[in-house]
Predict the structure.
Amino acid sequence: MNKKILVILTFFILIAGMSTACAFNLNDFSNVLFGAPKGNVTLAGVDFAIPDGFSEVENESVYNQKIDNPNIDVNFSSKVYTNASGDAIILSVSVSNIPADDNYTRDVAEDGANKTTISGVEGYEYADPGFYGFSYVKDGRLVIISSTDKELFKDVIVA
């Protein structure tokens, strides 16, 4: 039970840290409690499947946010989904004027990552405290999926 509370607290700290323009909306929290049907979502041209019971935390979404880098033109988009059990999924896609390749995914994963294939997609799986990650390239875009449960990756990835 203590581990679950720690994961939930970590998630809320992450959500608070990701807020750039507005505070957490209690309507989003009620959407999480009542669940949402499984659906598909496209983020920056990449398709994902959202598992049953997960709802978007809309105030935490970021669309085409420019990353300040004088050497490369990069835009970043991200969506956060949660369910009533406290599980979280964070979808992130970056698009730049230089197409991403395997080196980008390896750099995101850093040391200790395992090259693996999930749902027919090759990438790097890694673990951070409280979250698991999977990074891969799709059509020259860098895709990063983070979740409290790495088993959700196979439900989210659309090949």
User: Anything to note?
Assistant: Confidence is low (pLDDT under 50) at residues 1-37. The chain is about 25% helix and 40% strand. The first helix runs from residue 2 to 18.
